[in-house]
Amino acid sequence: MSWAIEDVDGMAMLRLAAPWGSALIACQGGQVWQAHVGGRDRLYTSPQSPWQAGLPLRGGIPLCWPWLGLHPQHPEWGMHGPLRLQPFTLLHVHQQGQDIRARMSCELSPELPGVMSPCTAVLHCAFTPCSLTIVLSIHNRGTHCQPSAGAMHTYLACDATSFSVAGLEGCAWHGPDDSDLQGRVHHNIDHCPGSTRTIYDAAPRPYPLRCGDGSMRAHLQRWGSRSVVIWNPGPEHDISDLCDDAWLDFVCVETANSGGDARSIPPGGVGCMASRWRWLDAAENMPSMR
Predict the structure, then answer these.
(1) Coil, helix or strand for 130?
(2) Mean pLDDT across the chain
(3) Would you say 143 and 187 are in contact if contact means Cβ atoms under 8 Å apart?
(4) Given this model, what pLDDT does residue 186 score?
């Protein structure tokens, strides 16, 4: 196992490497940028993404906080909150069995939009030969309550036309923030219908996901989250840092605190959200480590 902070075309990245795979985590925003597990890149990254400090990267797992989408009272503050652009400091990297674990932190000032109290964000990442676990903890060090919403905005590399997820049957859902669409899931989601941004009120239990040809099979397990967001821009998107047909290559499946799942962190308190992706196709094909 090895690790290093590297300059990747002007962006500082933490590179983790092991015999079974590798990962890149951007020091800007603590954003997992690449996860090469089971012989495949598991996260989508846009070749057209801006590659400049102070601009958001398109792909990987952006950490959106303290809001998701547009801020409900201050749309002029932009999308997804300031955390994804803040500098993270590496605290330590260590190996535990086959796991590689990294811990990073970031100080958040009330001068930032949406930050009402001084906070410290602590990020834990653990990579194994078939999984990725991310834990984001927000420590409120001030004297005011801190509103806390957001998501681990995971760009899952997959064939969007054959993507499916099971286990959401019976869950309530609602549409984009500017829509009054709502309902309840009656069957497995067996395809991504192009342009979609749907928020599901989903209990934190394992959810199986797959592509129709079996090339990707995974379980998503969540903690500290009762909402899941599924997003894809569809073929008619006008996103400048995505090529026209990029929507075919990913579906965002987001562990979230969104909508009615938004929270508040009291003074001295800690808000925590975590997700674990386990790729079953990688587990079945994992070589012996003996």
Answers:
(1) coil
(2) 91
(3) no
(4) 78
Q: Taking the domain 2-45+58-67+74-128+135-284, which CATH number applies?
A: 2.70.98.10
C-beta separation of 24 from 31 below 8 A: no
Vertex 223 angle, CA 29 and 56, to 5°: 20
Q: 171: Cβ–Cβ under 8 A, 6 or more apart, which residues?
A: 184, 185, 200, 201, 202, 203
pTM to 2 decimal places: 0.94
- Indicate the pairing of strand 2-8 with strand 11-18: antiparallel
Residue 225 phi/psi, 5-degree rounding, is -150, 130
Placement of tokens 């938004």 in the chain: 262
For 100, residues 6+ apart whose C-beta sits below 8 A from its C-beta are: 1, 3, 16, 18, 23, 93, 94, 126, 127, 128
